[in-house]
């Protein structure tokens, strides 16, 4: 009798343990399934949000690159025809004004080194110790070998603000045209990156530097 009670007790404990184990497995599987679905939904929502803002950012930068390339082609032609610094500067001043008014206020003006002379499309005159050939917009353009380049954010010597630039080496292999872009627009784009209205977005360049947050 005593032995039978012991066996019944052991059987009860084993049944209880198996039941608890099964319930635990079901709970884990259910939680894992819900978690997986929630993660997939979050990733999908994130991708959609980021994709839309990424397309807008890409179009915004392409617009700046188009402006720079057109200006670069004209200045290239002017230099081949023997235009001097005064004539080129007058052209840059007019183009910078037209672009800022008609295309985007975030484009702060075209400038660069043309035939060895620094010229600025908004009339800024740098200090005597300013060496344009040492600036990141110039060295990045040189490294691009004629391809339009997006310059990582840097401190602008004129305004003291953080800018990004698009720069391009011209056909003579030493002249560089550049266009500064205020990052206000990108800052707004980063604010638009959310998950159902929650969280925040960050725009990072290829070197891991935060451009907008």
What does the model show?
The protein is an alpha+beta fold and 213 residues long. Helices cover 54% and strands 18% of the residues. It has four helices and seven strands. The protein has helices at 2-80, 85-102, 136-144, 184-191; strands at 107-114, 117-120, 149-155, 162-169, 176-182, 203-204, 210-212. A five-stranded antiparallel β-sheet has the order 2-1-5-4-3. Strands 6-7 form a two-stranded antiparallel ribbon. The longest helix has 79 residues, at 2-80. The chain starts with a helix and ends with a strand. The mean pLDDT is 77.
Quick overview:
This protein is α+β, with helices and mostly antiparallel strands and 213 residues long.
The average pLDDT score comes to 77
Q: What is the number of E strands?
A: 7
Globally, the shape reads: rod-shaped
Q: What proportion of the residues form beta strands (DSSP E)?
A: 15-25%
Question: How are the strands of the largest sheet arranged?
Answer: 2-1-5-4-3
Percent of residues in helices comes to 40-55%
The secondary-structure element order is HHEEHEEEHEE
Characterize the main sheet.
Answer: 5 strands, antiparallel
The assigned structural class equals alpha+beta
User: Rg, please?
Assistant: 30 Å
**Annotation field: number of helices:** 4
Low-confidence runs (pLDDT<50, min 5 residues)?
A: none
C-alpha termini separation: 76 Å
